[in-house]
Amino acid sequence: MNDAELARLRPTDGARYLLELDTASEDAARYRAWILTPTASFPYTADLAAAAEPTLTALDAPAPDDLLARLTMFARLLARSAPPWPSRHLRWRGTRT
Predict the structure, then answer these.
(1) Best CA proximity match to 82, nearest among 60, 51, 46, 38
(2) Which of 19, 70, 81, 89 ranks highest by number of CB atoms within 10 Å?
(3) Pick from 56, 53, 37: which is nearest to 45 by CA?
(4) CB distance 20 to 36 below 8 Å
(5) 51-70, pLDDT tens digit by residue?
(6) What are residue 71's phi and psi, to 5 degrees?
(7) pTM of the entire predicted model
(8) What is the pairing mode between strands 88-93 and 15-24?
(9) Cα–Cα distance for residue pair 17/35, rounded to 1 Å
């Protein structure tokens, strides 16, 4: 995903969570992941397996704990539903008022 594509996905409110499949086998997958907010983006790798907790590795400055917890939840749900491993998983959550 290039910078222009990420810029188009940047929300005006809340956070967008994107996981794109990098490599996969029958029982595990690696995703490139991003948390996008109106003012920042946080890139990660996400190693997923149906029988294990996801391993998320920050590729730059880590996201705040609440945003990272939500990405972890989405990764966990994605791993539970596989295989097959979807090529893309995109979610948005607004800010709480």
Answers:
(1) 51
(2) 19
(3) 56
(4) no
(5) 899 999 999 999 999 999 99
(6) -60, -40
(7) 0.90
(8) antiparallel
(9) 5
**Is residue 57 situated within a structural domain?**
yes
Q: What are the φ/ψ torsions at residue 86 (nearest 5 degrees)?
A: -65, 150
Helix (H, G, I), strand (E, B) or coil at 97: coil
Classify residue 93: in a domain, yes or no. no
Q: Domain count of the chain?
A: 1
pLDDT-derived band at 1, boundaries 50, 70, 90:
confident
Residue 96 lies in a domain: no
Per the structure, the complete domain to which residue 78 belongs is given by: 3-83
Q: Residue 94: inside a domain, yes or no?
A: no
Query: 77 vs 21, 53, 71, CA distance in Å?
Result: 15, 10, 10
Query: How does pLDDT run across 18-38, given as a tens digit for each residue?
Result: 999 999 998 999 999 999 999
